[in-house]
């Protein structure tokens, strides 16, 4: 009886990691992947002010007018954990003071590598996006032309983290029925 109670208390104080499907673009998971892991996958990004000084990175996507912007916040033994990842139209950092285009490096990965929920990439029409995501993620809320998801989970990458991540929001931005932006963030 005592051992069972011990494991129950351990489970309740240290719940298992549960990260919602809406937290992923390709192999990158907001709330788990570190900035250092991002740069190993995509190459060195242009540094800019994010949640911490030099905490954000920006990459351009080749043959597109898109940028990937990642921001890390909680610093732990493995580095800055991403609290935001977005792909948007533009040639420089979409937030903060921005980094001029010539200083923003190209990602080593092409645009179609950045698949939301493993299925959806920029440029797809809304009907196709909805069909592909039907079995992959819960039904979204509609906000104007955009699709929005809010989900809860539990992620604590570093044991030194003061608080776990529990709330994620993902927004797919459409213009003229085409997907033009993807934004994943922790609330």
Give a verbal description of the structure.
By secondary structure, this protein is of the alpha+beta class. 15% of the residues lie in helices and 36% in strands. A hairpin with a 2-residue loop joins strand 5 and strand 6.
Q: Which features would summarize this protein structure in a list?
A:
187 residues, alpha+beta, two-stranded antiparallel ribbon, globular
Instruction: Tell me the structural class.
Output: alpha+beta
Please mark out the parts with pLDDT under 50 across 5 or more consecutive residues, or reply none: 93-97
Largest beta-sheet characterization: 8 strands, antiparallel
The ordered string of helix (H) and strand (E) elements is: HEEHEEEEHEEEE
| N- and C-termini, Cα separation | 39 Å
- Helix fraction, binned, reads 10-25%
Shape: globular
Helix segment tally: 3
Q: What is the total tally of β strands?
A: 10
Assembly annotation? single chain
If you average the pLDDT, what whole number results?
84
